[in-house]
Amino acid sequence: MNLLFVCLGNICRSPAAEAVFKHKLEEKKLSQYFFVDSAGTYGGHSGELADNRMRSAASKRGITLTHRSRKITSSDFEKFDLIVVMDDYNYDDVCYLAPTIEDKNKVCKMADFLKKSDFTYIPDPYYEGAEGFELVLNLLEESCETLIEQLIKEHSF
Ligand code: 4NP
């Protein structure tokens, strides 16, 4: 399965989602079944590593971010089976790029996989303090866990 996580800048939330998801796949010995990547709807940080604050917050949880930022393109719809966005702005921007209705149906929201939290989107931590990054990682750990459980059920990995 090919999975793409998308946020605005592809330097905070989506590269963290990619790394958290991959980390959980490794723990569950499921990495061989997935190709996982991330991208942004805004290309202004293309080529950059993830934000230092996100990299250091993730590394305290044993999670390493190596992704370099890139902008999503409509050709990503050919490669990816599922495109998971962080907020409603990302949802609108990514759906706008979808070449077909079928492609649009590949887009879903990360917060839909939150069971314990009341959040309806993954909040942008870029202009926040350290707590913002911890909150995002908590939400991503929870949603990635649910997403993997759901995919295991649907595809019997
Ligand atoms: P992200 O956070 O979408 O989670 O990567 C942001 C990163 C950069 C900017 C905004 C949000 N920016 O405006 O440059």
Characterization of the model:
- The protein contains 6 helices and 4 strands; from the N terminus they run βαβααβααβα.
- By secondary structure, the chain is an alpha/beta fold.
- The chain has a single domain (2-149), classed as Rossmann fold (3-Layer(aba) Sandwich).
- Strands 2-1-3-4 form a 4-stranded parallel β-sheet, with helices on both faces.
- It is globular, with a radius of gyration of 14 Å.
- The termini are close together.
- The mean pLDDT is 97.
- 4-nitrophenyl phosphate is lined by residues 7-13, 44, 124, 126.
Oligomeric organization of the protein chains? single chain
- Element-by-element helix/strand order: EHEHHEHHEH
> Which architecture per CATH?
3-Layer(aba) Sandwich
Content-based structural category: alpha/beta
- Helix content range: 40-55%
Overall spatial form: globular
CA-based gyration radius: 14 Å
Number of strands: 4
Under CATH, the topology can be stated as Rossmann fold
Largest sheet: 4 strands, parallel
Q: Number of helical runs?
A: 6
Could you tell me which ligands this complex binds, including any ions or cofactors? 4-nitrophenyl phosphate
Low-confidence stretches: none
Task: Please supply descriptive tags for the structure shown above.
alpha/beta, 6 helices, 4-stranded parallel sheet, binds 4-nitrophenyl phosphate, single chain, about 160 residues
Write the layout of secondary structure elements.
Elements: E1 2-7, H1 13-27, E2 35-40, H2 52-59, H3 76-79, E3 82-85, H4 88-97, H5 101-104, E4 107-109, H6 130-155
Parallel strand pairs: 1-2, 1-3, 3-4
Helix pairs in contact: 1-6, 2-6
The structure holds 4-nitrophenyl phosphate.
